[in-house]
Specification:
Blueprint lengths: L1 H6 L4 H21 L2 H32 L10 E5 L5 H9 L5 E6 L11 H10 L6 E5 L12 E7 L8 H14 E12 H13 L3 E7 L13 E7 L4
Helix pairs in contact: 2-3
Length: 238
């Protein structure tokens, strides 16, 4: 329960559908003594379990594997787009030498992540004694309140896909490009279909070394048909 309170739950609607489906199948199966309904309850339960694993454990594992590959130093000025409860932001802050800093932004929507709020994330930063390395502000990723080329690392975890419609997601990528320094790294972990969309948009923006990789079962939202992918890219230097 502590992990749920601290990190929130993504995909609440999906988990709810799986839970209700499992209960209905179980009730009908027990009442009718038909094995097919009981199998249905089990399948819904497994799908819901995948959701919970990814949101509570898997996404953290994904970033624990990613961050050692990044060049975090005293010169790092990072931006976490859609930071939510600060899972990724705090992981970065813990690895930053003195002088480095990471800023998180979010609009704190409850439907994106449960118990999502500016104060909750500020409290987590203070509790971790990372106020010198991390800070948060309320901002829309389509209109970032930062100067051009302010950051040399921009990351985002399971956030950009929440922007609707597609034109809004493209605006978000354009803003990330604007605030990122030439030669800076962009790392986005998000749903599979949107990562392919980002790949094409970043290619048009001139990014190089664009790579999209899978994360296995740690990124499954109900199953392998809805994976979490990782996109990495570098902004070219003039």
């Amino acid at each position: 329960m502590q992990r749920v309170r601290e990190n929130g739950i993504d995909g609440v609607a999906g988990i709810a559908v799986c839970g209700v489906g499992s209960l209905i199948c179980l009730a009908v199966g027990l009442g009718s003594h038909q094995l097919g309904w009981l199998w249905g309850a089990l399948i819904y339960g497994v799908l819901g379990g995948c959701f919970l694993h990814t949101t509570l454990v898997g996404k953290g594992v994904i970033w624990d594997r990613l961050l050692p590959q990044l060049d975090l130093s005293a010169q790092t000025q990072a931006l976490d787009v859609g930071c939510g409860h600060g899972l990724v932001m705090l992981k970065i802050a813990e690895r930053l030498p003195l002088g480095g800093h990471v800023t998180g932004i979010d609009i704190w929507r409850q439907q994106d992540q449960t118990h999502n709020s500016l104060q909750a994330t500020m409290d987590r930063i203070a509790a971790a004694d990372l106020t010198a390395q991390a800070s948060v502000v309320t901002a829309d990723m389509r209109d970032l309140p930062f100067r051009d080329q302010q950051f040399n690392l921009v990351v985002s975890s399971l956030a950009v896909h929440n922007v609707k419609p597609k034109t809004g997601r493209l605006e978000s990528l354009q803003e990330m490009n604007r605030v990122l320094q030439p030669g800076g790294r962009l790392v986005i972990v998000d749903l599979g279909f949107t990562c392919q969309e980002y790949h094409e948009a970043l290619r048009r923006l001139g990014f190089t070394d664009i790579r999209v990789t899978g994360n296995g079962y740690n990124g499954w939202w109900s199953g392998p048909w809805m994976p979490t992918l990782t996109l990495t890219a570098r902004k070219p230097t003039p």
